[in-house]
Amino acid sequence: MTAPPHRLPHPDTPESRARWLHDIGGLSVEEIGWRLGLPSERVQALLAQGPTEAVPHPESAEGARLIRRLSRRLREQFGLEAVSIAPMAPGDVDPVPVIAAAAARHLVRLLQARNAPAVVGLSHGRTIAAMVAQLPEMRLTGLRFVSLLGELTFAHSAYPHVVMNQIAQRLGAQAFPCPTALYAATPEEAADLLRQPMVRKVLEMAQQAEVWVVGIGRGASENQLHQSGMIDDADLSDIMARGATCEILGRFFDDEGHELPSALAARTLSPAASDFRGRRVIGLAGGVDKVTALHAALRAHLLRELVTDSRTAVALLDDDEQAEYAALLP
């Protein structure tokens, strides 16, 4: 799968970004304000200035139609129930902030729905942490969040426990971190930890969660688990030799989305691949370097919903389809 074609870069100004998000991304004034961190009145004023020569000129409705058509195409191709695509505006380099903003809106809508879940499971990662940082303050006292895996990294800001605390504060909900490491030293130690009452309680709650929100990692040396020291070089070499392509919840999968049997898998303290079946799993991932990993997860139907950026969404298509959506690539 090749990366999609890129349009010429545009100036990174508030005017050009707001205009592009409105005309090509099809976002509302409120959504643009959320993305850019601006009040709605300021966004309205920027849009009132009119388009500049640096910004492409398709009609606003056409840009929105492209986003909807691309979302529908991905749903059909991969059997997904929902696809939320965050348009990458001029000047956007890192897809994480735009995906996080879209994921936060997606989660808020889910939590405010009439059939809102009572328990939501969260995984780890930079995108999950960025999503939580984008959530507005709400009071959802009957809601529970549960961590789907143990401590991830020595970097304080990336601890799942910190993310769980932040989401509890923002939403007024209860939060239940998983009081263990992600990987045990041996399979025997993993079995012992699973017998601990507090660990068992949290993992049982994870099974009760109606919705899981998960990040998706790569099966390569750039994987965050390896970079943080949770997976050593020997484990990484082993899983890569076995054909690791995708990582979710600390578990590694091949390019068809089958979990790899390995010594690491036997020491992993997180829900098993079989637990994904029949569950509403929302995957957050972006960047063309994640396309192979995403394909693996989508082929195996590990996800029911996807939140991604426009560049990644286009790159998920077959090569001959990508040109149809070139207008979405700033």
UniProtKB/TrEMBL annotation:
Annotated ranges, domain Sugar-binding: 69-317
GO molecular function, one term: DNA binding
Keywords: DNA-binding, Transcription, Transcription regulation
Highest taxon in the source lineage: Bacteria
Pfam families for the chain: Sugar-bind (PF04198)
SUPFAM superfamilies: NagB/RpiA/CoA transferase-like
PANTHER family: TRANSCRIPTIONAL REGULATOR LSRR (PTHR34294:SF1), TRANSCRIPTIONAL REGULATOR-RELATED (PTHR34294)
Protein name: DNA-binding transcriptional regulator LsrR (DeoR family)
